Amino acid sequence: MTPAPAPAFTLDLPTPEDADALAELHHRVWRQAYTGILPEHALGADELASRRTMWHRTLEQRSSAQLSERLRIGRGPDGAPVGFLTVGPSRDEEAPRPLELQALNVDSAFHGTGLAQALVRDLLQDRPAYLWVVEDNPRARRFYEKEGFRADGVLTVDAALGDLREIRMTR
Fold first, then answer.
1. Is the pLDDT of residue 137 over 60?
2. What are the structural domains of the chain?
3. Alpha-carbon span 170 to 99, nearest angstrom
4. Dihedral angle computed from the Cα positions of residues 20, 25, 148 and 128, in that order, rounded to the nearest 10 degrees
5. In this structure, are residues 128 and 24 in contact, taking their beta carbons and an 8 Å threshold?
6. How much is the mean pLDDT over the chain?
7. 118: nearest Cα among 80, 77, 89, 75
C-alpha cells in the first residue's frame, strides 16, 4: 500500500513578519470569493491598505498566548500563508453562543486540500460556536454544514456592502 502524500500545507501561529502576507492573502481571497457579489470599493486597493493596518495591529499588539487561542494560519510548501482562521468571543449582543468563528479564508488554490477543515479542527475543535456567512456563498455554507453548523434562521443585511445578506449558522 502506498502511503498518503504529505499535506501541501502546515498549520502555524503567525508572527508580526506575516502581517503583509496575511493582508494580501485576505484581500486576494475576498476578491476570489466576492467579485460580483460585493461592491468594488470593498475589494479595491483602499481595502488592501486597511487590511495591512489591521493585520499589523493584530500581530504586533497581541501576545503569543492570545494569538494561540484566537488565530491559526495555514502555510503552503514555500512557507507563505495560504489560509487563516480567527475565533473569539461573540461580537453580537444577542449571540446564540459565546464563541464566534469570526473569519475563515483559504486561497482558492488550496480549496479541497483539507486546509479549511484542519484549521477549524485545530483551533475551534468541536466547541459550540456560531458564525455569519454570505447567503450567496453555497461553497462556504456546505463546508460549514460538514463541520456541524446549521443555519438558525437569523439573517442580517449589511448596507455598507451593497445590501449584502448574511445568514447565521450555529453548532
1. yes
2. 10-170 (3.40.630.30)
3. 10
4. 10
5. no
6. 93
7. 75
